[in-house]
Amino acid sequence: MQSVRKTCIRKTLERNSCVRNSWFRNATIGISCFFTFLLFLAVGTLLLVLKPSELLSALMSEEMLYSMELSVLTASISTFSVMCCSIPTAYALSRFSFPGKSLVKTILGLPMAFPELVLGLALLLLFGQGFLGPFLETLGIRVPFSKLGIVVAQFFIAFPYAVRVIYSTFEDINPRYEQVSRSFGYGEFETFRNVTLPMARSGLFASAVITFARCIGAFGAVLILAGGSYMHTEVLPVTLYLNISYGNLEMAITSGVLLMLIAFLAILSFERFEGGSL
After folding, report:
1. With a threshold of 0.90, does the pTM exceed it?
2. CB 166 within 8 A of CB 87
């Protein structure tokens, strides 16, 4: 019996050794490390181009302070709006069956598949003079080339991503918990508020962080719908674009560093609260 056990252990060690020495394993690890190193070099180059004094000077400039303030304000409003709309949307897609459900999921996924510029053009046509624009203007609401246009563009950019993340969160929650709550006489809304939402807390937080970062980084749709007006609709990505056009590398690089820092913190938070599962 002991000899059989030793034989099994030896064969297991031999298999593990073969796996460790496998050319396929080594090739895949080598490819991942190589391109990670290239990405690290690119990011490092962006961080090391400017001197600390130059970076601080650009950060404290009037244009950069305005851009950061407007970016945080609009992204916060957009994130709150996205979360309020994406939670019921994702829950409906996760728990209920209804006619056209597949079509709804497909349409919600479209903005993730085509360029932001296309979405920006579609929003400009929708809220411009041809469709909803005249009606909204009678109410005193102007979306194109305004700060409101930034929020609208950010909302439609981030909404599909938030729905996808929150949908996955609800899918991971066993419906039996809700069924037990319903069996005690609680209604659907009470069960959703007292059982489902608390269990989805980490996923909702991760979704909010990702949504905020997505809103901060939205560029193409914002540029088309809200315009790239200096010190008016100038959010961080627009600041980068404008200063690259002017040849002001200090301001452009500083904007890029800020956007990269926000993205890094968002991904770190997402990995922490969602376990890295997309």
Report:
1. no
2. yes
